[in-house]
Amino acid sequence: MMRLAAALVLAVFALAAQAELRVRVAEVDPPAPATLARDEMLSLRIEYTGADGVNIWARPFYKGQPVLKVRTNASLKHSGDGTALAWFSLDEAAEVDEIRIRSGGGSPYRESEVLSYPIKVTGTGQPGAHHARAPWVGELLQAGEEARKAAIVADRSSPLEGRSLLVLVIFGLGFLVAVFGGFGLPAWATWKWRGAWRALAALPLAYMVFTALRIVVDVALKPTSHNLWPFEILISGGTCIVAIAVLGVARKLMQPRA
Known about the structure:
Number of domains: 2
């Protein structure tokens, strides 16, 4: 009996050790110390073990604080043992003395820091020639793109679950309400109201027009600048609907009684 109990305890510890995510930075391109031009990628080849459907990111830090004005890659989900690519680029002049590798996943979702990697990187913040990429960077980029396309195809071919379909329908209805209400209600109030109330009603309308034009112009200049534009419209439209509702109540209360 004691031997059986000991074997069970060892098995539990072995499974826990196997499930624990471990990562190490195998290669960095360009090698450190590195000087990066604006928008030049610094890539890390990260070897991991014990991954259980998690995302893995790299975030630059300097003197314990996250470096702002950076771009990072979106991570695929990783399971088991393998190799992941993480990269970032600096949009302005900056120093980096540490890269923190973070993971996120699980149910409930949680994020954690799994590795701190000391490094010396200087960003010039100016356009300039980029270093020639190491072969492994191109290979991992291509593999990641192929995996992302395969995931999209698999997701499109799989039937929606009842809860997912309900969320999609609710979001679609909310988006339509935000578009028509966000533009329509302020436009109606601007047309119907008079005096200072008309000027106040025009403010939400101008805000919605500005939001829509900003998205159109930014996407024309950089197609990936507003990947979450439906949420931007949803939030802006909801804000305008609430603003008109508040103005309508205030206008009603401040009208002189007969």
